[in-house]
Amino acid sequence: MAWFPLRLEEVRAETPIDRTLVWAPVAPADATALVWQPGQFLLLRDPTSGIAGQRAYSLSVADDGAARPAITVRDMGRYGAWWFRRAAGHVAEGSAPRGRFVMDLDSCDRMVLLAAGSGVAPFRAFLEAWERAGRPMPLVLLQSARVPAELVFAQRFAEAAGHPAFTWQPTVTRAADDDTWQGRRGRIDAAWISSALGTAQAPRVYACGPDAFVQAALAGARAAGVADERLHHEAWG
Description:
With about 240 residues, the chain is of the alpha/beta class. It folds into two domains: about 5-95, Translation factors (Elongation Factor Tu (Ef-tu), domain 3, Beta Barrel), CATH 2.40.30; about 110-235, Rossmann fold (3-Layer(aba) Sandwich), CATH 3.40.50.80. Helices cover about 20% and strands about 30% of the residues. It contains five helices and twelve strands. The protein has a six-stranded antiparallel beta sheet with strand order 4-3-6-1-2-5. A six-stranded parallel beta sheet has the order 10-9-8-7-11-12, with helices on both faces. Strand 7 (about 110-115), helix 2 (about 120-130) and strand 8 (about 140-145) form a beta-alpha-beta unit. Helix 4 crosses helix 5. The longest helix has 13 residues, at about 210-225. It is globular. The protein starts with a strand and ends with a strand. About 35% of the residues are buried.
């Protein structure tokens, strides 16, 4: 596998514990390797971190041809904490984007995205690509977070929900009883997934997040009648 240097060009705060890191190749010739499909990931490593190995991060923007991949990291775990604290100008090593968890707009009359925590990162890229494609079918995002402040990209999704073809339905699972949150509470369950699917005859369902969440989400989609070949997932731990 080929590695090449990437420079951190921009850091954007998303929530108190999530930041988006925008990268660019140090060598212009490496830009040709930075081509990706929505849903793919970037491998990153940093010899200066003192942490062995590399980590895969979903790309949270769609490819616009500018060779500026972005990942969204959570201040959690050794690697997450390391990347969360990097500043613009930092140089690390990256791979060409890869992965088979990719958006498929063909043979689909409705797309339902199921996300928990930082698993929503690739779905921001999905939204951008779907918008650029002319919003070819209804797109529904069910997003779960522990508390309202951890709903990553909430402003972006809320703005996009102004279009009738996009539905964003967030929920929180650990908000205090006296929290001012007026939205939905509780986990994404089978009944909610079935409702999100509506009357679609050829839907695609994508689930991304911790392994337990993804397995429950896939089971809910199967219970609603979605065939395995129309289920896509990305999970960890």
